[in-house]
Design goal:
Layout: H1 13-23, E1 30-32, E2 41-44, E3 48-57, H2 64-77, E4 82-93, H3 99-116, E5 119-128, E6 135-145, E7 160-164, H4 169-178, H5 180-185, H6 190-197, H7 208-217, E8 220-224, H8 230-242, E9 245-249, H9 257-266, E10 279-283, H10 288-297, E11 302-309, E12 315-319, E13 322-325
Parallel strand pairs: 4-5, 9-12
Antiparallel strand pairs: 1-2, 2-3, 3-6, 4-6, 7-10, 7-11, 8-10, 9-11, 12-13
Length: about 350
Amino acid sequence: MTEQIFPLGKLDMAFLAEMLNRYTDPHPRVVIGAQVGEDAAVIDFGDRYLVAKTDPITFATDQIGWYAVQVNANDLATMGATPRWLLITLLLPEDHTTRSLVEGIFRQVHEACHMLDIALVGGHTEVTYGLDRPIVVGQLLGEVDKDKLVSTRGAQVGDAIILAKGIAIEGTAIIARERADDLRQRGYSQEWIERAQHMLFDPGISILREARLAATTGYVHAMHDPTEGGLATGLHELARAAGVGVLVDEAVIPVLPECQELCRAYNLDPLGTIASGALLLTAAADAAPRLVAALKDAGTIATTIGRIMPADEGIKIKRQHGIADLPRFDQDEITRLF
């Protein structure tokens, strides 16, 4: 019998959960360990928690070093932690690695670290057999006071679900950067393409500012960083980590106009398009308006898009013609373009 070959993208959640349950062991100092839906691990370091995360950048991009810092920092921020120390594993393509390529990636990492007050403290570099593009894997450590820790599992039945900034910032920037020639041929202006490309920086894929602000309000029960598989998969991850159900209203989800247009052009679903730059939060229903107001006062789009339900009510989306199961995108929509 031929074994199943997994497609590009995330492993099936149930299979991954089975692997983690089978092959990880508890440790007395591990507060949050390997679990589907949690953004980082948390380790007890006495007077505070050490928060640890690793995340790779595997899509071809001219900003790969900058990306690697941002996506790892986002995951620490959703735990309420301050990013501190970064290690980078840099795997470089055979027959294509030049001094300028390596220096360019190091420069990007340095600039992003400087902006976020993170120290690059080590890692590993090599030219790797079989690669046709660089791959950067970040390993980021941070710290948080014990009474300030936030986790995805903190979502509670009855909570409002809030989305900050909108979708899909990262997906839009990647498509505009990787399909610029095709977009010009389709009639999009250079100005429009450059605006979509620049979404990487404005509104940007970093959520540190929004997560820090939200954490200081005292209203937040859970935060989560939706990335590969988009908002829909992020909601599935949140629900699985917290052991709850979800109901979101499609009509109020803030899909950025450039994202809507590119998804229409390439027949992609915005809900399943890589969504770094968005932040999912939950808060008690009576506190949610104050949290939304605090984010808006700071200049961030924030919208209540649904609520946390009992687990037996499932993970649902309200559409124009009724309530349906919320789709999950183990394979991110933009992988269809590569």
